[in-house]
Design brief:
This protein has 216 residues and is α/β, with parallel strands linked by helices. The protein is built from nine helices and eight strands. A hairpin with a 2-residue loop joins β7 and β8.
Length: 216
């Protein structure tokens, strides 16, 4: 089992090296750094956002700007430490707004498709038990295109043996003050969900979580 885990970690490192050199879409032309993600390579909890911002592009690390500082605060509410989770984005390169290059825009469908395989491979190699979907883009890419974050935030869903928990993106709360309290309350719910998942030892227990998905 240990050798198997070591092989997965080595494969993940190779994958991240590929991301750093990726030219699958035109975003490589405008990036300073690709941002594969960071954290424990065998993390039980994974956070997936939308894409890198200015600070992330400069440093090559996810969530290091204002939204990242707020995320660190939220992790504490959920009883988590940044070093114990894995944090990444759907897009691995910053998507600049053509009208204002200092700002970012929503990812295009082609950009999401270009990066999708990287994200799926990260999930397969890290093998998290819980994936927190930060914002609508991550929600639609990994869970359900028809879902809206405003309707399903903090509700757990089971897919392929993984518990997915949609949450508002920290950046959204920085632009809309009322979402800060919502996110903080949702992180308390996330803490309960994580505790439940970590105590689960059989597939039957996971089925129980799925049945409770709309009531937790």
């Amino acid at each position: 089992m240990k050798d198997e885990r070591n092989e997965a970690i080595e494969a993940l490192m190779q994958l991240h090296s590929q991301i750093l050199e990726c030219r699958r879409c035109p975003l490589w032309k405008t990036r300073t750094n690709a941002v594969p993600g960071e954290g424990r390579l065998d993390a039980k909890i994974m956070f997936v956002g939308e894409g890198p911002g200015n600070q992330e592009d400069r440093q090559g690390r996810p969530f290091v700007g204002p939204a990242g500082r707020f995320l660190n605060e939220l992790l504490g509410i959920a009883g988590l430490r940044r070093e114990d989770v894995f944090i990444t984005n759907v897009l691995k390169c910053r998507p600049p707004d053509p009208l204002n290059p200092e700002k970012v825009r929503k990812p295009t469908t082609d950009e999401v498709e270009a990066c999708r395989d990287y994200l799926i491979a990260q999930i397969a190699l890290i093998k998290p038990k819980v994936i927190c979907l930060l914002g609508d883009t991550a929600l639609k890419v990994l869970l359900d295109r028809s879902m809206s974050i405003s309707k399903v935030h903090a509700h757990p869903f089971v897919k392929s043996g993984i518990v997915y928990v949609p949450l508002y993106h920290p950046a959204a709360a920085l632009h809309k003050e009322s979402l800060k309290d919502v996110l903080k309350q949702d992180m308390l719910k996330l803490r309960e969900i994580i505790d439940m998942v970590m105590q689960a030892e059989t597939d039957a227990t996971h089925v129980g979580i799925e049945k409770q998905a709309t009531s937790i």
